[in-house]
Amino acid sequence: MRKDKISNAVIRRIPRYYRHVDDLYYNGVVRISSSSLGRIMGLTASQIRQDLSCFGEFGQQGYGYNVEKLRSEIAEVLGMNKQYKIIIIGAGNLGRALIQNFYFAKSGFILDAAFDVASDVINTEINGVHVHHIDALEDYVVECKPDVAVLTVPRSVAQKTAERLVGLGVRGLWNFTNIELNIRDANVKIEDVHFADSLLTLSYMIANRDTP
Amino acid sequence: MRKDKISNAVIRRIPRYYRHVDDLYYNGVVRISSSSLGRIMGLTASQIRQDLSCFGEFGQQGYGYNVEKLRSEIAEVLGMNKQYKIIIIGAGNLGRALIQNFYFAKSGFILDAAFDVASDVINTEINGVHVHHIDALEDYVVECKPDVAVLTVPRSVAQKTAERLVGLGVRGLWNFTNIELNIRDANVKIEDVHFADSLLTLSYMIANRDTP
DNA sequence: TAGATTGTTAATCGATTAACAATC
DNA sequence: TAGATTGTTAATCGATTAACAATC
């Protein structure tokens, strides 16, 4: 039974389902049962069936799930077919690392442009992506209407830049600055990548292991 | 009442508590009640008191929490005073971005060395961190005993490299490769930073907004 | 002292797991 | 058909919130 309100816990698991099912697909696996997938992912079969049933009926009794179908259903749920346009604000080390190493297309995004203030990178191409001066942002967004912006700017300008982007109609921010952006517009979605939080979680786990 | 088994949900919140309390501290705030902190963080006062009480009694009736004390107590809980030694495996774009931009010391880590295979970076220094050839890893680890390794290597060598590090006695892996490492040793803690999962979550949120 | 606010216990809410009829 | 496995309902478990005595 398709649910209308999907819990956050479920949402956070979907990309992981996709990753595993995608792996199976590329390894030529044709069908999989909730119990085998559970064994692979470390989840109960029950949870997998519950989770998937939030979005539709993707399986078949006595058979399990067809991997190719499941993969494309999950991709659909995740909006991977929408071909969202994405731009990167801040072509420093991290911005460049994403441009050069992260395969946006595999997640269904089209990386269109990057912006910076440093004259030595402006008007260069990084991995085929043009770097514009940040002053050209307004004109660019009006014309190209990107859906999402990656924030890889210094902390000091993060909030201001975020507001500028939201004002221009950007609908999602992928935030790599270690601050929590204050954006009131509930229609703008923000996903934080907090490196420091992640490392501190690891620190906690090591410091509080069972055997020292 | 100090709890022995801390739930994962609580653990994931502690770094965020630290971040906010640290902010307050640097802004000169001396004391804070659970309700004001809740307002800032978007949590209920009740939850904050429950969470903190897992680790000890840090507050005072009628007063609230002393910010400086709370900050140092949370730091202690997180193991930030242990001065764990950390090394970076893979000095490509992402590795370099972390070396140059991420302030390890602020999370209590000492960044000691980096390793790579590319001859043009070996024996250079990035932001004061020496880049060694990966062949020197064994000797280095035996001598310097790093606690944690950052994995910023290509996917193809991720599992093999992880096993090598674990074999040498590394106790934590901060994994930036988009694969799930298979390490059986329960005493080795792994923290994944899955960029793709994060971006797909954002994709989901945008695709399934209330108003399209 | 009176007001404020904690830590903790109890109540509620939500998420996970178990069970099972339906059916491929 | 018989065996396997789904989707869903019910039971359990755990996490969050509310309430309140204790006390600064």
UniProtKB/TrEMBL annotation, chains A, B:
Pfam families from the xrefs? CoA_binding, Put_DNA-bind_N
Which GO biological process categories is it annotated with? negative regulation of DNA-templated transcription; response to redox state
Residues at which NAD(+) binds: G90, A91, G92, N93, L94, G95
Q: Where is the CoA-binding domain?
A: 79-180
Which residues carry the record's DNA-binding region feature? 16-55
Q: Where in the cell is it found?
A: Cytoplasm
- Report the protein name in the record: Redox-sensing transcriptional repressor Rex
- Source organism lineage? Bacteria, Bacillati, Bacillota, Clostridia, Eubacteriales
